[in-house]
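Service request form, structural biology core

Requester: graduate student, group of Dr. S.
Request type: structure prediction, single chain
Budget code: on file
Notes: please return the result as structure tokens.

Sequence provided:
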Amino acid sequence: MAAGGWTRWGLFALVGALPALVVVWLAVAVVRFATSDYPLGGGPEKVPCAEALDFGGAKLPKGAYDTECTVQAWLDTDYDASFRMPRADVRDWLKATYPKGPTPGTEYCDEGADLCLNLDSEEHEPPAGVDANAVVVNVTYEGPDTARVTFSAFTV
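Core staff response, request fulfilled:
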């Protein structure tokens, strides 16, 4: 045997361990893929609501509260915002935010939404200069004075 060198058995052990390491790595990858909602990364992260709304060319309306905003980025970027605001101010906020957008209505709204605005077609695009390719706003009236707004701005 050569001193300080690889023996025949040492080389054999290394070559024998390599397939076992590959099998362990594959097992970990399969378990992660099966148990994670985001196995490839890019899960939602909390962000300031100003950042989320700005991505779609909007600002948080006066009187907004219970704000929660996230971003999820991997291949595409998706900013989501949820907040409550005075019900009486919703239409004015939407019109001031997207003056060239369509009139808010009930067509193509998420299930349970009372009002929505979709800027996701060539006819109705997000404002020039924003990073989002599409903006979707759904409004649910929670009572005579309160509206819950969900805002999504994303790339496609």
